[in-house]
From TrEMBL:
Residues 1-17 form the signal peptide. InterPro entries: CetA-like (IPR006771). Keywords: Signal. It holds the Pfam family Bys1. This is BYS1 domain protein. It comes from Lentithecium fluviatile CBS 122367.
Length: 161
């Protein structure tokens, strides 16, 4: 009996919820920060690699930002950035994710594509920018599970969502 229960439990542990994976296909290293009531640097994202972070509510403000830049000090200066603003409402595993993706201080990936897919129920809105610049406006993803943010993906297929 344990052998029939264990594989689904292991699979559930591997498919984490409330996560964002950031993929870099741009060339230069991308620096990332998680900003809410505190700023936390995330691991850098080298070309051809990815990082994963949780999208959890900030305990004080409720909302947070993920900020991406080619500049290692991009969160503190006027370097071009891509900013994902979000607020996760509810309980883990059943979050309703309110989100907006926008460029700040210019176009970080000018002429390149930005693609963001989210998994939830019902299907969540996919964001696709072909010129690297945009402002998605506020969107909502009910029963949010995970998201992929892929930078410089022109000519590539869609991610896992």
């Amino acid at each position: 009996m344990l052998s029939t229960i264990l594989p689904p439990l292991l699979f559930a542990a591997l498919v984490a919820s409330n996560e964002l994976s950031i993929y870099n296909f741009c060339g230069p290293t991308i620096y990332a920060w998680h900003q809410g009531s505190q700023v936390k640097p995330l691991p850098k994202v080298d070309n051809g690699s990815d990082i994963t972070t949780k999208l959890d509510p900030d305990p004080i403000t409720g909302g947070r930002n993920i900020i991406l830049s080619y500049d290692s000090n991009g969160i503190n200066n006027d370097a071009p950035t891509i900013q994902l603003s979000y607020q996760a409402v509810g309980t883990e595993g059943l979050y309703e994710l309110w989100y907006a993706l926008q460029t700040r201080n210019g176009n970080m990936v000018k002429g390149r594509s930005v693609d963001m897919g989210l998994s939830g129920s019902p299907k969540c809105a996919r964001l696709e920018w072909r010129d690297g610049k945009g402002d998605s406006g506020v969107k909502v993803c009910r029963k949010f599970k995970f998201a992929d943010l892929r930078l410089c993906t022109e000519g590539m297929g869609k991610g896992r969502v």
